Amino acid sequence: MSESGDVVHAVRSSLRRLDEADARLNCVADRNDAAVLAEAAVAPDGPLRGEPITVKDWIDVAGFRCSGGELGLSDRRPPEDASAVARLRAAGAVVVAKTCVHVESERFGRVLNPHDPSRSPGGSSSGDAAAVGSGAVRLGVGSDSGGSVRVPAAWCGVVGMKPSAGLVPLTGHFPRVGERSDGRTVIGALARSTRMAWLAVTTMAGPDGIDGGVAPVTLGEPGSISVSSLRVAVGSPGGRDVCPAVASALTRVAAIVQEAGASVVGPPPDRLDEARRITEAYWARPERTGAQIEEDLFDWDRFRRRVLLDTVGIDVVITPTVADMAPVHPEDAHGGLRVLPPGEPHGCSGDHRARRPGGGAGGRPSLAGPCRRRRRAGDRVGSRVTRRPAPVPPRRARVQSSTCLSPPSTSSRPSR
């Protein structure tokens, strides 16, 4: 079989897996199989040649519908790729489907967890996480403001990489966002491995001449980092309660880090309450006054300064991505979640407190990775690795080198 034939075969196999995943999980927003197979036959050479990928419904892909999750925009067809997607396609990736957003919506209905359909996959990059977690594809492209890549990654047992703000262009994100109008949302990756997530993010990164918020940043190589040189803070910020399975996983992660030679310097700084307040005010911008928004922006700047000061002497922070297991889907129309009986599983109840927003407020890169792989979604737990930005020597202050160790509607509603 020719090389192009191998690519077509791989893509055709992925489409069959998507058939099965979508029938079971309701994760696909749009498909165009004939165009996909034609594209696969001429996929360019590159590090991702022939790699089938999915893309969140909030990111433009030429040849597919992109509604931004809105029922009234179901037939919107963008003429061009988002910059991030264009770069992945130029590297040989083949977009096989657009994926659903949100756990439940009028546009798409309910998306299910690939490991236990009775549970939530997390959101809002729900369809990508379900597709990657099911094995239909190895890579999905999502977006994240307050956990929309990381939370689904944790509950679907995959890797979620949220890059630094300003690393990947937001050109082609729908609805439109930018550095001034939305300083939190980033385009990131959900993948079966850290290596694949890193390859995707580095492929998407860099200025595109359109998004003015992206700086020319030279990325380092993860392999060049000596783990023994790292100072790592591990734990639940402020000693906050997490369910037993998450606590156990975090203990194992701390032991692994120490065995690798890193110095564990104590628990992470605790600014979750402040981050939550800033995040919730940000999400409520359409309802807030100009004076309130001005105060919110001041609070946000102060928060970022405080986090940098808190982490002096710390290179990496490792925390739980979520405090609890994937919640069970609502049983009624009122949005209430059924509380699990004690002991099923691990005595953890799946309520809304499992998702704790705020990780996007600092703009730093984060990686959500699975800590254990079990058959049930209730056993999926993850930890989050967040990198402190390295200080830049004065003579190189124009370009900050950043190494990630692993990260709506027509209105201004952001990716969460």
Q: What order do the helices and strands come in, and which of them pair?
A:
Elements: H1 3-25, E1 28-30, H2 33-41, E2 52-56, H3 83-90, E3 94-99, E4 104-105, E5 109-110, H4 126-134, E6 139-144, H5 150-156, E7 159-162, E8 186-191, H6 194-204, E9 231-234, H7 244-259, E10 263-266, H8 272-283, H9 290-310, E11 316-320, E12 366-372, E13 381-387
Parallel strand pairs: 2-3, 2-6, 9-10, 9-11
Antiparallel strand pairs: 1-3, 4-5, 6-8, 7-8, 7-12, 11-13, 12-13
Helix pairs in contact: 1-2, 1-4, 8-9
Textual characterization of the structure:
- With 416 residues, the protein is of the alpha/beta class.
- It has two domains: 3-204, Amidase signature (AS) enzymes, CATH 3.90.1300; 228-363, no CATH class.
- It is 28% helix and 15% strand.
- The protein has helices at 3-25, 33-41, 83-90, 126-134, 150-156, 194-204, 244-259, 272-283, 290-310, and strands at residues 28-30, 52-56, 94-99, 104-105, 109-110, 139-144, 159-162, 186-191, 231-234, 263-266, 316-320, 366-372, 381-387.
- Strands 1-3-2-6-8-7-12-13-11-9-10 form an eleven-stranded mixed β-sheet, sandwiched between helices.
- Helix 7 (244-259) links the parallel strand 9 (231-234) and strand 10 (263-266).
- Helix 1 (3-25) packs antiparallel against helix 2 (33-41), helix 1 packs across helix 4 (126-134) and helix 8 (272-283) packs antiparallel against helix 9 (290-310).
- It is globular.
- The relative contact order is 0.14.
- Residues 332-358 and 392-415 have low confidence and may be disordered.
